[in-house]
Design goal:
Length: 219
């Protein structure tokens, strides 16, 4: 999906906590979602220009690593076909292999979209009209701002988003919840471990995706 520049996503209430989040340089993010019988878990450690995401959706297990302008993907056969959208005829051949994508590859924007701190912050900002309320989370005071699905996602009308923000001089997002009753979707995201180093190395023996697909097509 096309994402808006962050300056168009931030509103007056969210500008400070989301800018504080970017200033922290990194965050640990855990999302659990459910839609009908489909249950997904996404665990991320993301920074300004790098990140790692581990995905589990039913029997699919996948991983994405982004370092600069290089994205690496891997997964079991089910994930390679049904999550990353690779041809089914390559399922056995590519299962468990690391593939490399760069900006010249068609799938790069989608694969790398959520694996940096800025893209994560864009996906948290509820769209207007907004409501806010004081609450507590884990015994600590928070501000809860609720509205529509984040503008950055360009989602259809209907889904609702709530962002929980810590209070104090250095406020930060700590939780986000989303729901779309008509589609049966519920999602909870927890944010923690702000500012911890995200140390990543490029997977060894990663195959450029164009080469992997080209070789298989000619074989």
């Amino acid at each position: 999906m096309r994402r808006l520049p962050l300056r168009h996503v931030l509103t007056s209430w969210s500008r400070r906590p989301l800018q504080n989040a970017l200033a922290e340089k990194s965050v640990h993010v855990v999302t659990h979602d459910r839609q009908g019988s489909r249950v997904g878990t996404y665990v991320e450690d993301v920074a300004a220009n790098r990140g790692r995401q581990v995905i589990r959706i039913g029997g699919m297990h996948a991983e994405v690593i982004v370092i600069g302008h290089r994205a690496y993907i891997t997964g079991n056969g089910d994930a390679m076909v049904n999550y990353f959208g690779l041809p089914r005829r390559l399922e056995a051949q590519l299962a468990g292999r690391w593939l490399l994508l760069t900006p010249v590859d068609d799938g790069y924007p989608t694969v790398s979209a959520d694996v940096t701190i800025e893209s994560n912050m864009k996906d948290l900002a509820p769209a207007s009209p907004l409501q806010q309320a004081d609450s507590t989370l884990g015994g600590a005071p928070v501000l809860v701002v609720s509205g529509g699905a984040p503008k950055a996602l360009h989602a259809p009308p209907g889904p609702k988003e709530a962002l929980y923000i810590s209070t104090g001089s250095h406020s930060l997002p700590v939780r986000a919840t989303a729901s779309a009753p008509n589609g049966g979707l519920t999602s909870t995201t927890e944010l923690s471990r702000w500012g911890e180093p995200v140390l990543l190395s490029a997977p060894a023996h990663a195959i450029p995706i164009s080469k992997a697909l080209g070789k298989s097509q000619s074989a």
